[in-house]
Amino acid sequence: MSDEELQGVFRNIKQNCYDNLKKARINNPHVFMVDNHDTSAFEFGKLANTLVAKVSALKKDALIMTIQGFTKETVAAKYDLCNARMKAITKQAAIAAMNSNRKHENRERFEVEILKQEVMLYKQQLGIDTNSLEIVARRFGIDLEDVYVKLNSETQVILRNFEQFYFKHEKVVPSNWHSLPFMRQFFLLRSYQ
């Protein structure tokens, strides 16, 4: 079968589904042709974009995080969602940095662990984690190392900069009073009186 004949068969299947939905009195039915094994084939991107556009705001974030296919709209939505999470996550890391004891040599610092987990989530959501890159390399017939070189991932550089920063400033261990600024001021004032 030629590509034109195959496309004609797909159009007939889609039109048949549409006609049957209309006969069942379903107003304005949306019919999408998708391939379970290849999300880049047919109309998976169109289906994903329609779902994201039609779903309520409460469910939108969860849906965006679970969609595996990459269209321009879903990548932009994932980027916006990851960007919105950044403020809360960096605040958590700052609190962990303030309350962590930096003398533990055998354990990774809490703030670095929090930020590392978030970086891994962003990489997974944006399709630049190891598994996603292996799939891309396989599909395009490219060596995985070439993909890494072209991507020039900054993750290790960022983590190395964290380590260098903390190595310089490891002498300061904040007390618990730093996390309660109002109480600290109260006790300082009281001792002054």
How does this model look, in words?
This protein has 193 residues and is mostly helical. It is 68% helix and 0% strand. The protein has a domain at 67-174. It has helices at 3-23, 44-54, 57-66, 72-99, 110-125, 130-140, 144-151, 155-168, 181-192. It is elongated. One of its GO terms (molecular function) is GTP binding. Pfam families: IIGP. InterPro entries: Immunity-related_GTPase-like (IPR007743), IRG (IPR051515).
Name a few traits of the molecule.
single chain, 193 residues, mainly alpha, 9 helices, elongated
Helix content: 55-70%
Distance between the termini: 93 Å
Structural class: mainly alpha
**Average residue pLDDT:** 73
The count of strands amounts to 0
N-to-C SSE string, H for helix and E for strand = HHHHHHHHH
The quaternary structure here is single chain
Any low-confidence stretches, pLDDT <50, length ≥5?
Answer: none
Radius of gyration, in angstroms, nearest whole number: 26 Å
What's the tally of helices?
9
Shape: elongated
Strand content: under 5%
Instruction: Please describe the biggest sheet, giving its number of strands, its sense, and whether it closes into a barrel.
Output: none
Pfam families: IIGP
GO molecular function: GTP binding; GTPase activity
GO cellular component, one term: membrane
Write the layout of secondary structure elements.
Blueprint: H1 3-23, H2 44-54, H3 57-66, H4 72-99, H5 110-125, H6 130-140, H7 144-151, H8 155-168, H9 181-192
Helix pairs in contact: 4-5
